[in-house]
Amino acid sequence: MSLTHRYDFVLLFDVKDGNPNGDPDAGNLPRLDAETGHGLVTDVALKRKVRNFVGLVHGEQPPHEIYVKEKAILNKTHERAYEAIGAGDALKGDDKKRKGGGETVEKARDWMCRNFFDVRTFGAVMSTGVNCGQVRGPVQMTFARSVEPVVALEHSITRMAVATEAEAEKQGGDNRTMGRKHTVPYGLYRSHGFISSFLARQTGFSGDDLELFFKALEQMFEHDRSAARGQMSTRGLYVFKHESELGNAPAHALFDRLTVAPTAPGTPARGFGAYAVLFDGQPLAPGQSLPAATGVTLTRRC
């Protein structure tokens, strides 16, 4: 079933006593906006969780294989596409030269879209080495930003063991080693997303794929637990469905009407109950739908 509507959505999620997205260039500290102190989570991190959820649910089987995954060698996947479309001869020759062109690339690109969920959802650049072209995905997401500034805490931790005998001798028999752990006491984050039916038709992104994507956003943190990330949960998924493919209202105008504000300003938040989520000043219950504008319907999925 192909998409015939434009969609925009707002994703709310929170973290409690954890690091939602460490910055490797800053000693894995939680990502922050240096000017405002608001917490950040990259779109790449959110897409990673969607990929992991889909791979878990569908066992990495076509048409729900995952292209960008841990330890993947992308050109090997491109070679699979060429073999599948009967263009294996194009792989022969100098490995340093980019292979494929014209109709072969189009067929390879279509094969990648059919078999890999993340390619037809988020798009991919597959034009290096074995050339499978480029795909512009119908689903795009922004960085998530915390509703209020967050505090990044640093904790000292102790490990009651050492890795080698040399370390044990250095410690003089006291096999204690010290480490650091970074957390955010609490933060509520908001991300915006956009889904184009025109690009969906180009990649084969279907209504079933859309439902799977929304399901992933709702449940991805339930299957991505780790000590470093603390407690993370999806707190709301608000979907704007437009009657037309071009859209019936600007996305930013719809997003501005969905407000998230502290219920006790000036008091540090330590839970989701410290915030009120309102649309045009009114709360929206899970599963409830309402007309958001002429030709636009808003549904709270969770």
From TrEMBL:
<dbReference type="InterPro" id="IPR013418">
    <property type="entry name" value="CRISPR-assoc_prot_Cas7/Csd2"/>
</dbReference>
<dbReference type="InterPro" id="IPR006482">
    <property type="entry name" value="Cas7_Csh2/Csh2"/>
</dbReference>
<protein>
    <submittedName>
        <fullName>CRISPR-associated protein Csd2</fullName>
    </submittedName>
</protein>
<dbReference type="Pfam" id="PF05107">
    <property type="entry name" value="Cas_Cas7"/>
</dbReference>
